[in-house]
Amino acid sequence: MTDSIFRTALGEERFARLHPMLQRRFGVSLEAGYACIGRGTMDLIRRGPWWTVPFLLVGRLRHILVADTGVRVPFTIENYPYRDPFGRETVTFVREYRVRRRPARFDATMVLDARRGVVVDYLGTHQHLAVDLDLDVDERGGLVLRSAEQRFYEGPLAFRFPLLFSGSAELHERWDEERSAFHISLVVRNRALGFLFGYEGWFECEFPAATDAPARLKPVRHERRL
Question: What pTM was estimated for this model as a whole?
Fold first, then answer.
C-alpha cells in the first residue's frame, strides 16, 4: 500500500486499523496510480426545517451544500488524485445526486497540510472555504471524519469562518461484509439552526488507473492558502 494523504494524516497505526476495503478506498494517491469511483443509492437525503432552506440554497450556488431531499436517490462519488497548480497532491471528492432526475453536486478537493499533518478540505467550485478534518477509525474499521476549524478565502480577504454561519459535519464510512458494499452516513449541523442536512446510503466502487483528474471535477479556482 503506497502513501496517501489519509494514511499520512491518520498515521501508520490507525490507518492499519481500517478495514482493508477502506484502506484501498482511501489509499488513492498519485503514487498508487488509481482513482476510486463509487456508484450507489442514498436510502435517504434529508434537511432541517424550512428556515434552514435559504442557508442550503446559498451553499448550493457553489456546490457546497445540497438543498434537495429524497429517498432511493442514485448518486456517484469520484475520487481522483492530481497535482494542483501549486504542486500539491490533491484528491477530488465530488458527489452528484439525481433527485427527481435533477442533478445536484457537492464538490470538495482535499490536500495535506504537511506542516500540521492535517487533511484540509476545500469546499465548493472556487475553494472559498477551507476546512480542517479530524480523522479517526471506529471499532469496526470504519473511517470517522469530523470537520473542525474553517477559513474563508476570497482574493486578499482571509478570515476564520464563524461556525455560527456555517455547518459542522460528521461523516461515517464503513465496509459491510454481508452486502459487500460501502455504507456512508453524514450529518451537518449549525450551532444556531441545529440540523441542516444529512444522508445515508450504500455504494460499490471501481478503482481505475489514474494519475490526473478530469477537468470537470477540478475546481474553477485553486486556493494557495491552507
Answer: 0.90
